[in-house]
Every structure is written in structure tokens, then in C-alpha cells.
Amino acid sequence: MSYSVKVVKGQFKLQGEFHTAEPNQPIRDEHGKLCGITNPRRVVHHHSYGGEAPFFQGLGDGRLWATRCDNKDCEVAYKALFIPFRIHCPDCLEKNTPLDITDLANRTAHVYSFMICERSGAFNSLEKPIRFINVEFDGVSTILMSYLLGKTNPEIGMKVRPVFRTKQPTFTITDLAFVPADTKEKDLPAGFTFSK
Amino acid sequence: MIRFSKRQLKTPRFLRDVYLVTGGQSEYRRAFPEKRTEELCIDAFQDAAKYIGMTPQAMKKYIHTCYYGHFADHFGDQLLGEAVIHDRLGLDPLGNIGVKTGGATGGSTIWEAAKAVASGYSDCTLALGWERMDEVPTDEGNNYISCAADKDWETPLGHIYTGYYAVMAQKYWKVYGREEESFRRTLAEISVKNHGYACHNPMAQAPMKITVEDVLKSPVVAYPLRALDCCLMSMGASCVILADKETAYEMCKEPLLIYSTAGSHTLRVADRRDMEIPLLPNETEETYKNIDKEFPGGERYPGFTGFLAARMAAYYAYRMAGIKDPTEDLDLVELHDAFTISDIQTYEDIGIRPYGKGRTYVESGDCYLTNPKTGKSGKLPANLSGGLIGCMHSVGATGIMQTVECMLHIHGRHAEIHGDAKRWESYGKKKPADWQDLQVKGAKRALAISHAGVGSHVTCTILMKPDARLDK
Ligand SMILES: [Zn+2]
Fold first, then answer.
1. Chain A contact for B78, CB < 8 A?
2. Residue A1 pLDDT > 80, yes or no?
3. Range of the domain at B126
4. pTM of the model
């Protein structure tokens, strides 16, 4: 159905598929008075991953990369592990060393907090409800945001294991997900595998 | 950072006192399909001029620089929207700048405008904020809001900000709320209170007489949060005029001293590292000696249960303004009740209660104008405007609205503005027959907290009568 919008009792009333709206369609109120126009937008950004590119490449390869501050003179974060992958140490600003933490993640990942979300925004590619989880790994100073695949609801403290979209990766953060630690590889959703 | 140097913890200082001269507001609604943004900004500006018996023309003659709070350019598809408003207010060729700090934009705008006066650059500044989120469908709007999270590490996960935010509510609910039914009811009570206070505010978007049961029956948005636990999405504008002492007394009879500070913390909650709790003047190391035993799971600070940015804004502000104990020294507060649960988190961040004990501020009745438990005046009434839950959350205007509302109480002019039947009529509303004057009697000092999303930015604004100052 084509898109239409009008004003009823001081509120915009929308109908139809709004991603395909035509530009410059008049918006009128119930008395026919002109209030405005439709103004659709569709753009493509060419976005750089820069120094984080190894992390996003790593997901497609079935590996989880973090970084570590190896600056002996760093007063706070020497040997601290960061994931989200930080290119530079937030304390000394020296370049961090990328470190493959897949095995650590396989062994120690557990849920710090979570949220089950029934809604999503435009352009969402994840199945709903989205089971957001925040994952702690032993010895890592930060708490990674991700999502739990499958039908099991998360719990705080639950042991989980990373899975990777190694078949047809999208090179986005959605290529990384987690499953309950006792999940069998044959039960993983299409496209996902355990670490390689 | 998780460790601070002495210089970073320096008590902020204005080189000269800064005064709030006046403030004004537009009406707030979900949408204004028949108004341009500038019409609402001009409403707020005219309201501020009228408050001190000036014409807009006369007030403009004092203004030297302008600070505009407007967060979400992409909603209006207009970059440099500040320049549009500045021109429509007829304030060219004065210097102006746009301020963007998410939900804290209003508070940050005041922070900037205050520093300009404090430094001597300007003798009089305008801080004006607005937001317009009604021009896109909700689905697209959710995506736009999610763009305020990390583009690569969060936004692709559902394009829904609630998902990144509510994990903190979940943690608080489990650790400090212990998933107790009684705590769930306390959360609901905040919504009942704030929607109820909004009934006496002609500008407010969501006046509602509801019960705890109504809140508990409203649809789940992100468990344990329900629709009536959440703040509004609004459109509207508000402004304040700040000045140095001499200019302020020339413009009005009763200017108020203003202090303003800011704190920040990671945009991604994922980046929060464990650290020691920075202590407020009313806390000691003893306060938190057993917190991890008392609340298992609360070992990490701030973890997902506290907002370090709010703690730091209060840390700076209390020392700057001479506040020793917020509950004793302040007469009212306007807090950023984005969600009922984050309202409770804020009580703890700013030291109204210690970490873990926020709920008792509501349960004791201290947060009410009239304590329902004792029938006496509440110790520290909160969000008499209705807050973000009952009055509005028109992002760039929110922190400014809170400051204006605090001003009305300290001036003892709450009823004059909120009880004016003509004002109600001008918004197409009827003044309720059971309208109540929510004036805090004898109010001398007030505080407003302006807060962004997961806590990336928070400001603390403190107003007081000049003869009630505590810093000298
Ligand atoms: Zn370092």
C-alpha cells in the first residue's frame, strides 16, 4: 500500500509502507489545511573501520579479537584487556596489542546483565525478541554487548559461548552472537559456527 | 578514566558570580504538526521576557552571546538548526553556538551559557533549547535514536536504544531491587507521583490520575519496565537568561545565584571499568564498606547500577556551591526521570541516598510535596513539574525546563504561572477544578539533573537565593 500521512486531532497519522514514500506529498489536517510535506531520505555511507577492521574480519573467520595495553609505563591499564576492541589504551593512549581471546571467551564467557527486547528500529536484521546480553570474560576489564541466539532466555551468571557468522559474514557486530554453553554445534542457527 | 588526578578533581570555580535572571517555556506536546520549531522557541522567549515585565525587544538588548541546545539534527533533516532559530529570534549578528550532549543537552546548554558569564566574556547570555522528534515514524525514530549509541558496536544490534539502556535497569532490578514485588511497586509509585503532579502544570504533556496498579498493568516495554515507567517523547522549547550581578539586578528584582557542572562516562556501557566510588561530602569510606555483602552482585562500581557521570556532576557541584548534604541543604529537586528505575539510580548517584538505598527516598515519603506517610511537608520534593514522565522530555529543552521550574519555586511564583487560567486556555486546556498549588513554601535552594542516555553526559545545576548561599 502506498504511503500517506495526514493530521488528525493534532497528531500525524501514517498509513502504508513508509520506507517507500514519495517525496513532496502534501500533509493536510482534517479540514484540508496544508501542514507540511513528505520528505523521504535514502543514503549510503562508505564507513571506515580503520584500526578496528581486524576485529570485524576476525568474526567472519570465527575468532574473537581483543586488545591489550602492553605499555609498562601505563599507570592504570598495563596488561588490561579490552573488548570492545580499543585501538589505543584509554589511559596512556599507546597503541594496544591485538590479542586473540577466542579460547578465553570459549572457557569463561558469562552473562553480566541482559534484556529481552520485543521491539526494534528501522533496518533491524535480528530476529525478535532480541535477547541482549552483556558478557564478562575472566581477566577482561570491560563487559561486551552482544545477543543470545536461540529460544533460551538469558540469566545473570549464565555460562555462554561465542558463535560466529562464518558463512556469508556481514562484517558487522551482528556476526558475533552467543549461545548457552552446553549448546551442540548441530543446533546452531544457519550461518553460525563455533570458533574455528 | 578510572583514576583521577588532583587537578581533574579541582572544585570548579566561576571567576565571578552568575545569576539566573528569568526563564520561560512553551507548551509541550508529542507533536505540533501545525507549528514550526521557531514558533515554540519564540513562545519560550516571550514567556521569559514577560516573567520579568520586559518586552522581548528590551530583553534582547541585554543579550551578548547565545547557546542553543538541540540534540537530534537528523530528526528535523536540518543541519545548523541553531542558526535558523537564532535568525528567527532576530539575534544576528551575535555569536552563537549549538550544544549537543544527548538527553543532557538542556543542562549542558546552561553550563556553557553560565561559563560565558563567569569568565567575563559576556555579561548576559541566552540558553535556549528545543527538540522536534515528531517528523519521522516511530520505527525510523527508533533507528535515529539508536544512532546515539556506538555505530559499529551497538546500533546494528536491533537499531533500538532501549536494548542498550535497559540492561542497566535489569542489573539494578536484580542486584539492588532483589526482584522484590515491593521494589516494583516503589518504581510504580514514582510514575503515579509524576503523572499526578503534571495535572497541575499547564505546560505538561501527560497529566494523569493513575494508580500503582495501572502502572503494573501497563504493557511491558523491556522487563521489568512497563510503558508507564517510561518518560515521554516531546516537542517544545524552554530558555533561561543568565547575567553577572550588576546586569542581573538591572534586569530584574530577584535574580538567583546559579552553579553548573558536568560529568561524563563511556558512550558504550561495555567500556565501563571497575573503580572506587568517588565520595560526596555526605559520605565516607564507611558508607560503602559492606556494599558487596549487602548487595551480592554489586561488587563492580559503577557496573551497570550507577551513573558515574551523575556522581561526578554532583561531586563538582556540591563542592562548588558549598552543599554538604543535598537532603538538608536543598528544598526541591528536578531529576531526570527517563525511567522510574533510573530515577532511583540518580537518587544514589547524587547522594540523596547512599548506593543501594535509593528506594527509601520514595518509600519514606521524602520525595513528595506532602509526605503521604506523615501528612507533613516532604523533606525534599522531587519533580513537582511532572518531570520527564509527566511533563515532557523535549531533549534539548528538558534540562532548561527543570531549571525554570526550580526558579518558580524559589521566587514563590509557582502558582502565578501554573495556576493562571488564561495560560491553560491559551494551550486549549481548561484549568482543572481541583488544581493544586504545588509551591514549596520558603524554597531557597534547588537542584536540577540533566542526563544523557546510558549516562554519557550529566549536568548538575544548582539555584539559590543570593542570601542563602553556602559557599562563602
Ligand atoms: Zn595503557
1. no
2. no
3. 19-136+236-241
4. 0.95
